[in-house]
Amino acid sequence: GQQLNQSPQSMFIQEGEDVSMNCTSSSIFNTWLWYKQDPGEGPVLLIALYKAGELTSNGRLTAQFGITRKDSFLNISASIPSDVGIYFCAGLATMDSSYKLIFGSGTRLLVRP
Amino acid sequence: GAVVSQHPSWVICKSGTSVKIECRSLDFQATTMFWYRQFPKQSLMLMATSNEGSKATYEQGVEKDKFLINHASLTLSTLTVTSAHPEDSSFYICSARDVRHFNGYTFGSGTRLTVV
Q: Are B106 and B98 in contact (CB under 8 A)?
């Protein structure tokens, strides 16, 4: 089935540093989404990408949709303690006229004050 | 914005009993809802797609007789874990698609199920 490979698996950085994580797939997705999940909560949408090559920002977050539509990266600039959490990429798959979100394995971010 | 309410937030039950989890879209109608399961330190795995007024579509490997899904209205889907066992202990999360927005997949806050 469709799988999304996300890296790195975890990151432990100093407050103020920039962060970069990426996601790759063997399949093409027409929409890529980036989510953040806090402990014991559901994921919250950060950024949605619709077009190959698209670069989108949301505050300190920037994400790009790869030209081949098989990869995406998420950058966080000037990290702060509240950035701690698990970040997931997700691809929107269309199957039998229905839509499904396929999630990557996640990147756990820890920020040292 | 779209809000999805999930209840209960956590539940502890004995082996062999059944547990029902509710997922409600509060300010929009959802013809389709999704149920995910997440084990500790793992990603969200799609269990089934819940369709209003019709049978749910289960992912490969998910037992439909064990995880009963009912989507009787445009704002409510329920997941019932029947004859629960300790290995069913997990974090269950629902999601609803807000058709007013193409990327409108809103998630509930999850239900932590512990079977003892």
A: yes
Residues in chain A: 113
Question: What are the pLDDT digits (tens) for B45-84?
Answer: 999 999 888 889 999 999 999 999 999 899 999 999 999 9
* B71 Cβ under 8 Å from any chain A Cβ: no
Residue A110 has pLDDT above 90, yes or no: yes
Average pLDDT over residues A60-78: 96
Determine the average pLDDT of the residues in A61-71: 95
Distance CA B92, CA B94 (A): 7
Q: Report how many Cβ contacts below 8 Å link chain A to chain B.
A: 55
Alpha-carbon gap: A87 to the closest alpha carbon of chain B (Å): 10
CA separation for the pair A33, A74 (Å, rounded): 10
Distance CA B37, CA B112 (A): 10
Residues on chain A bordering chain B, Cβ-to-Cβ distance under 8 angstroms = 1, 31, 33, 35, 40-45, 48, 50, 88, 92, 98-106, 108
The shortest C-alpha distance from A43 to chain B (Å) reads 6
